[in-house]
Design goal:
625 residues; alpha+beta; Beta-Lactamase; 4 domains; five-stranded antiparallel beta sheet; 21 strands; flat
Amino acid sequence: MHMSFRTRLTLFFLLLVVLPVIALAIAALIIERHDGQRQLDARLSQGEEAAANLYARASGRGATVARQLEKDMQLATAVKDRDEAALRRSANDFRKQNRLARVELRVPGVPRVAVGDAAAIASVRRILRTADGEPAGAVILYGTTPIAYAKLVRDVTGLHVLVDRNGELVVSTLAAQPDGDLPERGSADIGGVGYRMSSFTRRVGAGDVLTVRVLADQGERADLITGPTLLIVCLLAAFLFCALLFTLTAARSLQSQTQRLLDAAQRLGGGDLTVQVPVEGSDEFGALGREFNSMARQLRSRMEELDVERSRLQETVRRVGESIGKGLDRDALLSIVVQTAVDGVGADAGRVLMRDGPDEAPGEAARAGDVSSYLQLLEAAEGAAIADADTVEMDFQGASALARPMQAQDGDADVLGVISIVRPGRAFSPREQELLTYLANQASISIENVDLHRTVQRQAVTDELTGLFNHRRFQEVMSAEVERTKRFGHDLGLIMLDLDNFKQVNDDHGHLQGDLVLREVARVLRESSREIDEPARYGGEEMAVALPQTGLQGAYDFAERVRRRIEDLELPLLDGSGTLRVTASFGAAALPRSADTDKDALVAAADAALYRAKRAGKNRTVKAE
């Protein structure tokens, strides 16, 4: 049965456009609805994680300040004397100073001492010791209150919060209160509103169980779905309408233009390539298309091949340039740069020179091809490019060299290095010079990214004031060294030092003077350490040095050398009124070969020895027991 072009176009539209679009619309609506639920669950999961992190941070406050409490001599004396009033004063003062929600002291023979909010949460428990270092009870520190914690979680996550203690509701951010027990996870109806919830539990104080629930209003899921759903429906309806209108109009128009398109095909056969004729079946359009293709195929094919090759080359060079700007392996990227420059312009060889320092001469960092035959020409072009801070091209004995300096991108005029390429026979075009400039700029960005990355890595593990490793780096080093000691049977020494009467230095001369003292002591510590030693600022005026392959006597001898050098320091007072002398107390400990212990025990042993040195009169070194 013969079908008109218009009829065939309409059927084609129905089969290949309308039906797939309708199926796509249905699939999109289903996916969008499921995606709304996933978004809500993902938000709830993130909220639970954030709430747990905030609870851990509140508990961590108590753990952080517990060390200060262990060194409180006033509290230690009160514990030893079993003085309830003094214990209560010390606990209350400590709570206020460290902004804790609650402090509980449990000392045998004394009624429990508790100050602060009775409902406080986020607790941490530590052993109390007398001034002689003997265990004498326990202290429980609470980091926050349920109300403050719930408000913080609400502000950070935007979710509602329920906190119950031993099954009884303590605080809620909901307007309505729940009836009956709530599930730990899943859905629940509270006050006529549906909520999705997730929860976690923590131990508080002497055995209470705290349950924290985060809740998301399921009505928010409906809000997430309504807008996108309507937008999808409207867009698809508009697309179908436009497509149908276009099909009907095109069919009517194409039927009336058959003869004109046939004439256009004949013009194309005479060399007019501006008219495009599609090939469809054996009707008029097919005849026109075959006539056009028989006359213009070779020329069009060649032009398309040239366009594809040019686009491919441009895209390859740009992609390589972008990867250079983002990479962190300087040597590998410089090799890519010079090889890309050589390939991109058809050069014979090339190389990159880099400076290791601002005052040092540049040296070769990467090369492509054999540059030995062109060294004299390359060196002349590179020297001129560095001197002029601009692109330079030179010719010698039938060869041309092109050099471009690599400069800092932050506005500084310093030349980081130079990239140069060379070839015989012909000079470099402006387009080829532009390509080399682009690659040189991308290489400069890459070099600065490498330097910035190394700087950030160094700052992440370094204490800004003293230049020593920070506490986090010290913990990582200790963990690694303890494991190495156990594996290979080496000794591991550790010293901890604390400046004597450092608070008085700050009080009498100011914190700037105290900073000077810390920097000078850190300098002594660095100069006294071996390359394998790891000096670190442990916290405040307390410092530590990990001593691999060093026993207890070696650690003690090292500590004594450092102590005497600190004692000999004469530090100028910042107000010009004279000099200042300081001393330090040291604790030395060691992990024996193949010892069955961990870094915490080693740190505790050195810290205990330091504490005994303080009690024994300061400015001395005490070995761990």
